[in-house]
Amino acid sequence: MRLTDPTDFDILDAFGDGRRNNAANLAYVLDRDRGYINTRLPHLADHGLLERVGPAPSSGLYVITEKGRVVAENQESYRTDDVDFEALVERELGPDGRPQASLAQD
Asked: Which of 11, 17, 42, 91 lies 20 to 30 A from 35 at CA?
């Protein structure tokens, strides 16, 4: 998984409150170009870090996934050359795609 650091992590952090958001709002909050944010959101969704949500399929609204939360929480490991980041993320996610810590709470 190739991420743009720090922009993609800034986007994931902006979704940390669990609410839906779109490129226009994120561009304003992050002080970045809206067109650029519009290119990053589908990329993050392709990696399963964000999910496009409605109500309309073309609304441009996204929400962070559990995988996205794990990636955001491990930003420093992404920057470390000797860490297999994708393996780290997969280890932290259970077989159902939920973080291992949440499995103990069920």
From this structure: 17
Q: How confident is the model at residue 98 (pLDDT cuts 50, 70, 90)?
A: confident
- For residues 61 and 21, the answer to whether their CB atoms sit within 8 Å is yes
Count of the separate structural domains present in the chain: 1
Q: Binning pLDDT at 50, 70 and 90, where does residue 22 land?
A: very high
Q: Is 93 helix (H, G, I), strand (E, B) or coil?
A: strand
What pLDDT, in 10s, does the model give residues 40-63?
Answer: 999 999 999 999 997 777 789 999
DSSP string covering 17-76: T---B-HHHHHHHHT--HHHHHHHHHHHHHTTSEEEE-SSTTS-EEEE-HHHHHHHHTHH
The domain that holds 85 is classified in CATH as 1.10.10.10
Query: In angstroms, rounded to a whole number, what is the distance separating the alpha carbons of residues 41 and 62?
Result: 8
> Terminus-to-terminus CA distance in the chain, angstroms?
30
